[in-house]
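Weekly sync, protein design subgroup
Attendees: M.S., D.O., the rotation student, P.L. (late)

Item 1: inverse folding check
M.S. brought a backbone from last month's batch and wanted to see whether the design step gives back something sensible before we order anything. D.O. pointed out we never logged the input encoding, so this time it goes straight into the notes. Structure tokens as presented (229 positions):
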């Protein structure tokens, strides 16, 4: 299976991140486009320049969702993922990249970390990984637990986003009534847990997601000459 098709499972959150990155870059008017200035004539930074780390995050997650898991994307996603709680989107995307690259166990591990924190997209993917036995032991009951958690995920429901109904459909033909009751009980007992790293990243990888905001450029204004007439 190609990397692009393997990473095709993405929700509106991933698309929203990509749209945010495009919108932020568009606000600057392009490299050669006109730049806004303040009252003193200084060039104002674009939204992307004011918050380059957020833009970099969105772009990296979007590239992973599109199947572009090159070395730079791996490094940026790893850098963000190691920041722990609050970066579950990067952890999910990093897991997707590892799965696409054939490193199934590592991919499932990262997806599981994000799913345990309550990230809906990761819960959806983890349900299917358990169903297929992809990167972890095949376990349809455990997969059904994650499918139920995904379908009830408050972060989706509070935004009015309807969960993908095909996830629940995947389990209908493989579970007995007892299996379904067990999965339901596991879902009800579940509480979120947040992964925190216990190792240090390589210095080059740590630098890959660090960006300094651009400051307004001070430009000299040409004084106007008084009209002698």
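Designed sequence read out in the meeting:
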């Amino acid at each position: 299976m190609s990397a692009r098709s393997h990473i095709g499972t993405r929700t509106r959150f991933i698309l929203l991140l990509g749209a945010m990155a495009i919108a932020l870059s568009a606000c600057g008017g392009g490299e050669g486009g006109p730049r806004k200035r303040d009252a003193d004539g200084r060039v104002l930074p674009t939204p992307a320049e004011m918050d380059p780390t957020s833009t970099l995050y969105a772009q990296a997650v979007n590239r992973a969702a599109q199947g572009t898991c090159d070395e730079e994307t791996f490094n940026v996603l790893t850098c963000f993922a190691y920041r722990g709680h609050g970066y579950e989107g990067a952890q999910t995307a990093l897991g997707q990249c590892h799965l696409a690259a054939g490193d199934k166990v590592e991919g499932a591990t990262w997806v599981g970390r994000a799913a345990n924190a309550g990230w809906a997209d990761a819960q959806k993917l983890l349900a299917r990984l358990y169903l297929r036995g992809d990167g972890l032991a095949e376990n349809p009951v455990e997969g059904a637990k994650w499918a139920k958690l995904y379908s009830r995920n408050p972060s989706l429901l509070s935004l009015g986003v309807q969960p993908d109904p095909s996830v629940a459909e995947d389990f209908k033909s493989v579970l007995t009534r007892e299996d379904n009751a067990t999965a339901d009980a596991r879902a009800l007992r579940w509480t979120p847990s947040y992964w925190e790293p216990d190792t240090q990243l390589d210095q080059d990888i740590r630098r890959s997601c660090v960006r300094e905001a651009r400051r307004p450029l001070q430009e000299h204004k040409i004084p106007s000459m008084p009209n002698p007439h």
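Discussion: The two ends are 79 Å apart (CA to CA). The mean pLDDT is 81.
Action: P.L. to compare against the previous round before Friday.
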